[in-house]
Structures are given as C-alpha cells and as structure tokens.
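Retry 2 of 3 after timeout on previous attempt. Resubmitting structure tokens to design endpoint.
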C-alpha cells in the first residue's frame, strides 16, 4: 500500500461541483454547530439556575474529567478515521477500510472499559472531602460516558471521512443535547426533589447511549456495499503509530481546554468551578464557526494534498478563517464590553466571573484569527509537529494553572489558558507556512509568499 502522505487524487475536482459540495457541507455543518451551541448553552443556563454554582460546578468538573478520558480511550483513532477513510474510499481499498473500522472499535472499547474502572478509584481519592461529595458522586455516575462517548466519536469520524457530515454530527450534536435538555426539564417538572448534579449526569449517560445507537444505525446505512461483503485487512502497526501521534496532539489540545476546570475542581471550591465553567462556555461560543468549517475541511484537505490543488486549497483556507473571524467578532466584542450582563442569564452570582470572561473572550478571538494550523498539518502528514507543539502548550498550561489558580482563582485559570493556547496557535501557523506551504491565518498570503507543494 502506498504511504498515505503520498496520495494524490486521480484527477482534479470539477470546480463547480466541488464548490457546491463545500458550500452545502459547510452551511449544513454550521447550522448543526449553531444548534449544538444553542442547546449546550440552554443546558448550561438551566443546570446553573437549577443546581446553583456549586451543583453546576460538580457537573462541569465531571464532564471535564470525562472529556480527558475519552481522548485517551479513542487513542487518536477519531482523527485517523477522518483522514484514512476518505483516502481508502478514494482508492477503493475496502478491505483496509473495514479493518480500520473494526480495529479502532475493539481497541477503543477495551481501553475505555479500563479507564471507566479507574474513574471510580480516582474520584474517591481526588474528592474525599464532604463538601465535595457532589463532585465525587457525579464523577462516579459519569464513568459509563467514557466508552459511550469514545465509540460515538469513532462513528462520527467514520461518517465524516465518507463526507456525510450532517449525518455524522446529528447524533452527538443535536440528538444527545436535545434529549439531555428534555430529561432535565422532565425531572424538574415531575421529580424536583431528585434534581441534583449526579441525577443530571445520570440523564446524560442515558442520552449518550441513545446517541450511540443512532450513530451506529446511520453509519451502517452509509457504508459502501463493498465494505459489508469483503473480509477485513489489518495494518495494526501503522494504524497504531499514526493514531498515537494524533492522540498526542488531540489529547494535548483537550488538556488545554479542560485542565483549567479539572485543576480548579481540585484546588478551589465547587462554586469557583461553576463560575469559571459559565464564562468558559460563553467564550467557547466564539469558536463554533471555525469548528464548523474544520469539520467539512478535514477530508477535503486530505484529498487536495497535491501540487495542482494547492492554490485552491489556500483560497479555501483563507476564506474559511476570514468568514469565521468576521462572523464571531461582533459577539466577541459584546462579551468583552458587556459580558457581565450576559452572565446574568446564569444567575446573579455568576456576575463574579465577568473578568474571567473578558480574558477568555479576547483569547478565543485570537484563537480564531490564528486559523486551523493543527488541522492542516494533521491532514497532510505532519502529525509529529502538531503533537510536539501541543505537548509543550499543555505542559505550559498545567504549570501556569498550578502557579496562578492559588493566588488569582478563576482569573488565573483564564490567563493560563489564553497564554498557552494563543502561543500554540501562533506556532502552528508558522509551521503551516514552513512545512505545508500554506497560510492559515486571517491574513492569508497578504504578508507575502505563495502556496508551494506540500513536502517541498
């Protein structure tokens, strides 16, 4: 089998059809991302108001732990599936296609089962105090989410590799948060005495199971008929090597987004965790447009990894980052100058997080402006570079959190995230120009230079 990084499409894409596919896919992805952002935001407000800062902090802390564990359980196979499924499909290598699907499922299931067991032991050690009982119970209840989320993410990635973006995203981004919202409202209306952070997490586990079943059903319908009939072929060594590098950079990227909440939970009160989680949720809304474009761009970048497609790819990347930045700039300015008023949606006690929100909003705007360097490098064979950069950034983030949280609280956590995240994104942008010959920032080629062949 040819090395994946040497893949070249057999013929150029038809410009009109390609543009239509990109626009429709990006638009559909954006609509789903907006729907997910809206549902997640409503869930956050509802949980914050019903549970208070402490209860919401316990829920958010457990979800931060689960997010970290799911990355480990998936072992980088999510990103690998997006890239390799697109390539195997183009080459019609159906045996390797089926083998990768089966191997990634078995590996993730075994690893996630082990991690779920570890959660039970860790929760009791990290949160032994009586005043953190809600955190401990929420984490115990959340343990089954590790295999459920890991397997769901693999199905989503495989469907994205097949370029069925909308069906890939619907179970996890619309169905699950929609059912969670419905379940929380039902408990509040019919069993209000049972409402607590662990109860909300139990509902989350049930909705994740339903979303997994839906994702499995849709993926089976999307698979080419050849995949269903052929015997699988396994290239376990090469898959594990590539997945491990992708695990490092995706895992370190997740640490950048979750270490602040996890470390706040260990070093400060549940109330502080709740305040910070609310401001972090608001600031994270600024990256949803960029995330929507990346979902559709990932398999396209893998297919356009060729000299004859480079100028088109540069135009696509520049347009995508500029649209993303200009789309969120007005809301970002609102968060910067009037974020305290928006925090009132969560409750009056959340006004204490307005300074943290200002810091995070500025950082997220810079994040969007720096573009999708990690995506480009990961999809074009430079996983090692991304892994090294994110490893350094994650280590920096943990050290800064340890230094700043004890003295500055949630504002210290916000500074730690912004400094490490923006620094990593700038380095990725520089290496995208150096290694891939493409500029991913809002400046495009305005600062000089032109696209060159990847690997040149």
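Retry 2 succeeded. Sequence:
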């Amino acid at each position: 089998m040819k090395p994946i990084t040497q893949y070249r499409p057999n013929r150029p894409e038809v410009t009109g059809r390609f543009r239509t596919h990109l626009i429709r896919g990006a638009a559909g992805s954006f609509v789903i991302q907006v729907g997910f952002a809206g549902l997640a935001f409503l869930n956050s407000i509802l949980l914050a108001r019903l549970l208070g800062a402490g209860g919401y902090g316990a829920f958010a802390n457990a979800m931060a732990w689960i997010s970290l564990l799911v990355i480990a359980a998936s072992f980088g196979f999510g990103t690998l599936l997006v890239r390799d499924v697109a390539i195997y499909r183009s080459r019609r290598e159906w045996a390797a296609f089926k083998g990768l699907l089966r191997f990634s499922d078995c590996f993730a299931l075994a690893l996630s089962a082990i991690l779920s067991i570890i959660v039970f032991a860790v929760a009791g050690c990290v949160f032994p105090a009586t005043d953190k009982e809600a955190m401990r119970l929420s984490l115990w209840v959340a343990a089954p989410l590790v295999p459920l989320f890991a397997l769901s993410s693999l199905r989503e990635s495989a469907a994205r590799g097949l370029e069925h973006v909308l069906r890939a995203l619907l179970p996890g981004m619309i169905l699950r948060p929609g059912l969670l919202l419905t379940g929380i409202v039902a408990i509040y209306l019919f069993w209000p005495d049972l409402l607590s952070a662990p109860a909300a997490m139990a509902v989350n586990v049930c909705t994740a199971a339903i979303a997994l079943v839906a994702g499995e059903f849709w993926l089976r319908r999307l698979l080419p008929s050849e995949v269903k009939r052929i015997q699988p072929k396994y290239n376990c060594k090469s898959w594990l090597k590539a997945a491990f590098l992708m695990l490092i950079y995706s895992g370190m990227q997740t640490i950048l987004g979750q270490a602040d909440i996890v470390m706040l939970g260990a070093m400060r009160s549940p109330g502080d965790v709740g305040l910070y989680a609310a401001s972090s949720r608001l600031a994270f809304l600024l990256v949803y447009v960029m995330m929507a474009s990346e979902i559709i761009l990932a398999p396209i970048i893998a297919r356009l990894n060729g000299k004859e497609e480079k100028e088109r790819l540069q135009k696509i990347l520049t347009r995508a980052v500029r649209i993303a930045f200009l789309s969120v700039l007005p809301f970002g300015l609102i968060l910067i100058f009037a974020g305290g008023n928006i925090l009132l949606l969560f409750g009056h006690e959340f006004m204490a997080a307005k300074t943290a929100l200002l810091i995070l909003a500025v950082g997220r705007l810079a994040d969007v402006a720096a573009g999708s360097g990690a995506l480009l490098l990961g999809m074009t064979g430079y996983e090692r570079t991304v892994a090294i950069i994110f490893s350094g950034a994650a280590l920096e983030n943990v050290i800064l959190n340890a230094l700043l949280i004890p003295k500055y609280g949630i504002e210290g956590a916000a500074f730690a995230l912004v400094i490490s995240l923006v620094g990593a994104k700038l380095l990725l942008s520089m290496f995208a120009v150096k290694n891939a010959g493409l500029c991913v920032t809002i400046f495009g080629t305005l600062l000089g230079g032109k696209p060159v062949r990847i690997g040149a």
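Attempt log closed. Residues 51 and 343 are 16 Å apart (CA to CA).
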